From TrEMBL:
It holds the Pfam family RPE65. One of its GO terms (biological process) is retinal metabolic process. Keywords: Iron, Metal-binding. Fe cation binds at H161, H224, H295, H504. InterPro entries: Carotenoid_Oase (IPR004294). This is Beta-carotene oxygenase 1, like. Binds 1 Fe(2+) ion per subunit. The lineage of its organism: Eukaryota, Metazoa, Chordata, Craniata, Vertebrata.
Length: 508
């Protein structure tokens, strides 16, 4: 894996026919995936895996399976390739100008959208967590053009993991650091009927639902995703924070932007429950012990409770692991180094909604649901201290999105074991029985599993897709198709060109 993790990817701009071994005939559409693919430009190299320039690739199902890949032609990509070196700073790589030039020149802000593919209206965008997103054509993978959130809503940062309701509306969150008024978190909506006309971007119809003020003006919480139920947005304000002063002076201090994130293990985690229709937050103060969360799994309401599942860590050391000097170590050295990193754990929190502070007994569990051990205990100060139910160790979670915001039973994700021969597996977890089934193949590294429902399907488990690369040169990269019920292989489509390791994507 160390040999392929930071290998520069190759473009396959024209559709390439895959060698197919059994594909369900109903499977029609395109799986578009995004991730870092270019780690050096000229003689310059990035420091962090999350810095690599976005390489988008796709698997299209239409009587046959075809593969494409193209670099996102962002302004960052164009600037770097024109200069034949890295000239735009990224998360873990700060770039400095020629000393003969003005040392006070401010670095360009990146639009290298390498994390996910998201939909606003009928438009599709490569996204990361900055104020820029780049529209793409999901069939040809051509870059259509760049959009700036700030031209439509006052945001400096936004997540790459929005939610979509049953009507096709898109909900997302962002952070407003600079602008009028007090710094705040913003929740917004882009209607499903937003225009497809490139001259009229979908974001022009953006609607702000509400704002949540920072608890600490100079230290806003970092967030990568959020939860959504039928009636509420669930926002986890975690003690993994962005140091605004350090961020503003990072260039002059000679440090990268990644170093501006700090985990405060002595602080608490706060949960905000916001009504989607009214934009008002519940007045109850829910809190938990310090944790770090990147990915939400699902959230739903049941008997006057909000239930939400997240992948939680005990600290923020995960980011450090992805510095390339760590990723490219010899296997045994890599394993020894990474023993200190806390594992990703699926935790379920349950928040009772209709609680009267004056009538609720102090020190007792207010959760009345019988299918969880999660607790919510009223404190003397009227706040509610939450303790989670632990389910399973997993990352990169996905569900049958038809069950988003609904009570569900299964989720899918990636597992990584540290051993002399680390093998990455994908797994299906049964939340009710707390059991799981896995798929693995020697020396193979499957991507985040993506669920696809067959036409008219009502059951929660159907088909799983995953892009798989191998460190064995005799095994071609392939798209894996699994029966989501049994996790047995249904088929695969082998690709006769190199495929890069990616992050997230969308089946269209």
């Amino acid at each position: 894996m160390q040999d392929i993790i930071a290998r520069n990817g190759l473009e396959t701009p024209e559709p390439l026919k895959a060698e197919v071994k059994s594909v369900p005939p109903w499977l029609q559409g395109t799986l578009v995936r995004n991730g870092p693919g270019l780690f050096s430009v000229g003689n310059s190299e990035y420091n962090h895996w999350f810095d690599g320039l976005s390489l988008i690739h796709s698997f299209t199902f239409h009587n046959e399976v075809t593969y494409r890949s193209k670099y996102l032609k962002s302004e960052t990509y164009k600037s770097n390739t024109k200069a034949d070196r890295i000239v735009v700073s990224e998360f873990g790589t700060m770039v400095y100008p020629d000393p003969c030039k003005n040392i006070f020149a401010v670095p360009n802000f990146t639009d290298n959208n390498l994390i996910n593919i998201i939909r606003y209206g009928q438009d599709y965008y490569a996204s990361s967590e900055v104020n820029y997103i780049n529209q793409i054509d999901p069939l040809t993978l051509e870059t259509v053009g760049r959009a700036n959130y700030r031209n439509h809503i006052a945001l400096n940062l936004a997540t790459a993991h929005p939610h979509y309701d049953k009507d096709g509306n898109t909900f997302n969150m962002g952070t407003a650091i600079i602008g009028l008024g007090r710094p705040k978190y913003i929740i917004f909506k882009v209607p499903a009927n937003a225009s497809k006309d490139p001259k009229k971007p979908a974001l022009r119809k953006v609607q702000q639902i509400c704002s949540v003020p920072f608890r600490s003006t100079l230290y806003p919480s970092y967030f990568h995703s959020f939860g959504m139920t039928e009636n509420y947005i669930v926002f986890v304000e975690q003690p993994f924070k962005l140091d605004i002063v350090k961020l503003a002076t990072a260039y002059f201090r000679g440090v990268n932007w990644g170093s501006c994130l700090k985990f405060d293990e002595k602080d608490s985690t706060f949960f905000h429950v916001i009504n989607i229709k009214t934009g008002k937050a519940k007045s109850l103060h829910y809190h938990a012990d310090a944790l770090v969360v990147f990915h939400h799994i699902n959230a739903y309401e049941e008997d006057d409770h909000v239930v939400f599942d997240i992948i939680a860590y005990k600290d923020s050391n995960l980011y450090d692991m992805f510095y390339l000097h760590n990723m490219t170590k010899e296997t045994d050295n890599f394993i020894q180094t990474n023993k200190v990193f806390s594992p990703p754990v699926c935790q379920r929190f349950v928040l009772p909604l209709n609680v009267q502070k004056q009538d609720s007994p102090k020190g007792t569990n207010l959760v009345t649901l019988t299918d969880t051990t999660a607790q919510a205990v009223m404190q003397d100060d009227g706040s509610i201290y939450c303790k989670p139910d632990t389910i399973f160790e997993m990352e990169l979670p996905g569900i049958n999105y038809n069950f988003n915001a609904r009570k569900y039973r299964y989720f899918y994700g990636s597992r990584l074991e540290w051993s002399p021969h680390p093998n990455k597996q994908i797994a299906k977890v049964d939340i009710v029985t707390k059991t799981h089934v896995e798929w693995r193949q020697e020396n193979c590294y499957p991507s985040e599993p993506v669920f696809v429902a067959s036409p008219g399907a009502e059951e929660e488990d159907d088909v799983i897709l995953s892009s798989v690369v191998s460190s064995d040169p005799s095994v071609s990269p392939f798209l894996l198709i699994l029966n989501a019920k049994t996790f047995e292989e249904v088929g695969r489509a082998s690709i006769p060109v190199p495929v890069h390791i990616d992050l997230h994507g969308l089946f269209i």
